[in-house]
Design goal:
Strand content of chain A: under 5%
Distance between the termini of chain A: 22 Å
Oligomer: heterodimer
Order of helices and strands of chain B: HHHHHHH
Largest interface: A-B, 71 and 86 residues
Distance between the termini of chain B: 15 Å
Structural class of chain A: mainly alpha
Radius of gyration of chain A: 17 Å
Structural class of chain B: mainly alpha
Chain lengths: 144, 199
């Protein structure tokens, strides 16, 4: 386990990049977190990762809270904060500007069509993927 | 949607379609998102709908659906994006920061305490059994929320095209397991087309 600024930078870099590729909710990023934390960085053993996943699901809050627990394990409280900031910062800033743009164009016909058009797709997607992917990622970890 | 009506629902707050309450204060934003976070076991979508639509009535069911749909198409956690967009809509940058702090602060404190306990006591076989229980409960809660969110699709539209898009998306991802980017690239233009035609 690395300590100090190096570990914090590694955490920040990994989760910032990961967040940009996690479309469709936090659980879709679990396999990649597992690969990086266990196989690449050896921050956690397989077993510890499975327990980390379980703990994060048992703790109330967004599923992405697992990021804070991985950061905490690597570099304490500062690690948790840095990892979570990296996971939410870039995507949060993007969401902020998209939200503002969306407010600006509210009332335009194409904006209404776009907003309403995304709804049934999201509902179908939520019904299909979320509980299933949580179960699957758990099952995969549990087998090992 | 009716931005120009500052009407307060002074009469009985009867239905979900009643006029909006006044915009939430920073404190109210923090409390709302902290509530969502601390009640949300195994995912926070269900409690977001409950707090935002059913309890606080800050959003109509349709507005919730549209905001959530936008967030789920953006990278990052869906409800994290939701808190940023919702907070900033009423209170700007500060609102976004306060909302996300409410959503993340309390669970982060909790998980660090839990992580410390775990580090002391090491492996806990009971964890796995507890997780199986909470995962099934979370899956059930999720499906109930999906049903709630789908209701406006059936109530407000005469055609079955819109619910059909939801069913087709579910079938393509959940049953056929086709790749997500391809399915989205095919179905989003169709769905936007349908809502354009049905303006």
């Amino acid at each position: 386990m690395k300590t100090g600024a190096g570990a914090l930078l590694t955490l920040a870099g990994f989760f910032a990049v990961l967040s940009l590729f996690s479309i469709g909710g936090g659980n879709s990023a679990i396999p990649e977190m597992h690969r990086y934390a266990v196989d690449v960085q050896h921050w956690l053993t397989d077993r510890q990762f499975a327990d980390t996943f379980a703990l994060s699901q048992l703790t109330p809050g967004p599923n992405l809270i697992i990021v804070a627990l991985i950061g905490f394990h690597v570099a304490g409280v500062l690690g948790a904060v840095v990892a979570m900031l990296a996971m939410c910062g870039p995507t949060g800033i993007a969401a902020y500007f998209v939200g503002r743009a969306s407010e600006r164009f509210k009332g335009k016909a194409w904006h209404g069509a776009l907003s309403r058009g995304l709804v049934p797709v999201t509902i179908g997607l939520t019904a299909a993927s979320r509980p299933a992917s949580a179960f699957e990622s758990w099952a995969k970890l549990n087998v090992k | 949607m009716n931005e120009s009506s500052p009407t307060r629902a002074s009469a009985a707050p009867s239905t979900a379609s009643s006029p909006h309450p006044p915009p939430p204060s920073l404190f109210a934003l923090f409390v709302a998102f902290a509530t969502i976070a601390l009640c949300g076991f195994g995912g926070v979508l269900a409690w977001s709908h409950r707090v935002m639509v059913e309890e606080r009535r800050w959003l109509t069911p349709e507005q919730f659906n549209q905001t959530y749909a936008l967030c789920s198409m953006l990278p990052g956690g869906n409800i994290l994006n939701f808190s940023v967009i919702f907070g900033s809509r009423f209170r700007g940058v500060l609102g976004a920061l306060v909302a996300i702090a409410g959503l993340l602060g309390p669970p982060m404190l909790l998980i660090m305490i839990i992580g410390t306990i775990y580090a002391h006591y090491g492996e806990m076989p009971a964890l796995r059994r507890a997780l199986t229980g909470i995962a099934s409960a979370a899956a059930g809660l999720m499906m109930a929320t999906v049903a709630k969110m789908a209701r406006p699709l059936f109530v407000n539209r005469r055609s079955i095209a819109v619910p059909l898009v939801a069913v087709a998306t579910f079938a393509a991802i959940g049953v056929m397991q086709w790749p997500l980017p391809l399915v989205l690239a095919a179905i989003i233009p169709v769905s936007i087309g349908i809502s354009w035609v049905r303006l």
